[in-house]
């Protein structure tokens, strides 16, 4: 009996990929099986704004990695007409139709079963008709209210990050499964239709028109974008002929001038930073009144919450700061996120972290009078940014990121790929340092004191706040003594360390006085410092006498004191408060 059961189990295992096997094995998985992957999409969409619905069709060029009876894709809240689905292998004359199909709403997948195995190689899967609802939940393909000359109207807009493209069309909705997209829209003739690429042609038929767009480069499904509505716009062009537009509400084109200026100048800065040209022929920015996030970095068509994009002559400085910051943030994603994409969503923090750093970099060059680096240093601990955790990082980061983007352009990468690029360019053990920071919660604090004979600097690390003392980090420590002309840097890997002050130029006491000693210079490291009474007295004296302490260090000392005393962080004028994607 046992032998019979074993034989049945073996046969079941061997037939797992065979015709008639249960599709249940595709359920309850985090990711799609990689037997079938997309190469290109031809997507047609026809929204019905009055009835809050849409219809569409899609042809997907597929690569069959190994022969299979099954095609598994993502689909959610769509009605797919099964009799309008077929597959044709490259070079094959026979059109294969699925014999069965299953829709699993909980798993957001759609499974097709074919009687004949799809051969290894390429082919085209045609889904001739599907429908969905233009909802108001601000995800997928949805309707947003907006004002047109005092009249309430509706626009159609997409929001696909992280996993909402599947609510608009059947697709392989994972960041690493990149493909090209050729989008066609059928819309009312009086409306404007926007997508990632410039329009290829328009065909009018009475009250409707069909707009076809150029094919995109390879990109992830979450970056596909469509906006349909009535707008005015302002336009400019970069020195390398990239057309930049900001679309505004009708009659308010001037509200887009500030954003247009920031956009054009940010493109110039990033092209120089990455040493790679912006890869699309145009960049559109448009504000959406009903929007889920602060902004979305769709390739070539960035969507914003309207309140964060448009700036009027009456707007306060804070609004200008927020607009500049979020525009620069989203434009940086065109390289770091779109051109090179994280392999899976667990690394999305990396895209966001670099975009936050890069937005400060760009805004500082556009508006140097804003002193945004000081603000960035103030916010570093509060916002959890790890990007500048290595000493002297600002210069190596340009070389590192340019190499990283060039190596992985048009594909996906993991966090380890980035650490490797940073190590090569900086000559520092980035992977060893960052593994500790990314694999445990919280961040460290250092206690700092000098020995009674003023010979040694005593450092001790511990987790900041609660959580015990067992966790250790590899901490990039920087130390300045009486001057910023030269400062010292080393890694603290052990719980405690004694550093001879004579080995740190300028840090030893003289017959006249003992120098101020500042740890975590300009607050570029992601840790707090608790100074002994001796060291704090020296710093307070230096601050009172205005002896060279930078604004970032003055704020850092006060902020650390408040944190250790349980006081909320200091008020930060002009602090960024807008959510960003």
Automatic annotation (TrEMBL):
<dbReference type="GO" id="GO:0006508">
    <property type="term" value="P:proteolysis"/>
</dbReference>
<keyword id="KW-0645">Protease</keyword>
<feature type="binding site">
    <location>
        <position position="352"/>
    </location>
    <ligand>
        <name>Zn(2+)</name>
    </ligand>
</feature>
<keyword id="KW-0479">Metal-binding</keyword>
<feature type="active site" description="Proton acceptor">
    <location>
        <position position="330"/>
    </location>
</feature>
<dbReference type="GO" id="GO:0070006">
    <property type="term" value="F:metalloaminopeptidase activity"/>
</dbReference>
<dbReference type="InterPro" id="IPR034016">
    <property type="entry name" value="M1_APN-typ"/>
</dbReference>
<keyword id="KW-0732">Signal</keyword>
<dbReference type="InterPro" id="IPR001930">
    <property type="entry name" value="Peptidase_M1"/>
</dbReference>
<dbReference type="InterPro" id="IPR050344">
    <property type="entry name" value="Peptidase_M1_aminopeptidases"/>
</dbReference>
<keyword id="KW-0031">Aminopeptidase</keyword>
<dbReference type="InterPro" id="IPR027268">
    <property type="entry name" value="Peptidase_M4/M1_CTD_sf"/>
</dbReference>
<keyword id="KW-0482">Metalloprotease</keyword>
<dbReference type="GO" id="GO:0043171">
    <property type="term" value="P:peptide catabolic process"/>
</dbReference>
<dbReference type="GO" id="GO:0016020">
    <property type="term" value="C:membrane"/>
</dbReference>
<dbReference type="GO" id="GO:0005737">
    <property type="term" value="C:cytoplasm"/>
</dbReference>
<dbReference type="InterPro" id="IPR045357">
    <property type="entry name" value="Aminopeptidase_N-like_N"/>
</dbReference>
<dbReference type="InterPro" id="IPR014782">
    <property type="entry name" value="Peptidase_M1_dom"/>
</dbReference>
<keyword id="KW-0862">Zinc</keyword>
<feature type="signal peptide">
    <location>
        <begin position="1"/>
        <end position="20"/>
    </location>
</feature>
<feature type="binding site">
    <location>
        <position position="333"/>
    </location>
    <ligand>
        <name>Zn(2+)</name>
    </ligand>
</feature>
<comment type="similarity">
    <text>Belongs to the peptidase M1 family.</text>
</comment>
<dbReference type="GO" id="GO:0005615">
    <property type="term" value="C:extracellular space"/>
</dbReference>
<dbReference type="GO" id="GO:0042277">
    <property type="term" value="F:peptide binding"/>
</dbReference>
<protein>
    <recommendedName>
        <fullName>Aminopeptidase N</fullName>
    </recommendedName>
</protein>
<dbReference type="InterPro" id="IPR042097">
    <property type="entry name" value="Aminopeptidase_N-like_N_sf"/>
</dbReference>
<feature type="domain" description="Aminopeptidase N-like N-terminal">
    <location>
        <begin position="37"/>
        <end position="223"/>
    </location>
</feature>
<keyword id="KW-0378">Hydrolase</keyword>
<dbReference type="GO" id="GO:0008270">
    <property type="term" value="F:zinc ion binding"/>
</dbReference>
<feature type="binding site">
    <location>
        <position position="329"/>
    </location>
    <ligand>
        <name>Zn(2+)</name>
    </ligand>
</feature>
<feature type="domain" description="Peptidase M1 membrane alanine aminopeptidase">
    <location>
        <begin position="258"/>
        <end position="400"/>
    </location>
</feature>
<dbReference type="Pfam" id="PF01433">
    <property type="entry name" value="Peptidase_M1"/>
</dbReference>
<dbReference type="Pfam" id="PF17900">
    <property type="entry name" value="Peptidase_M1_N"/>
</dbReference>
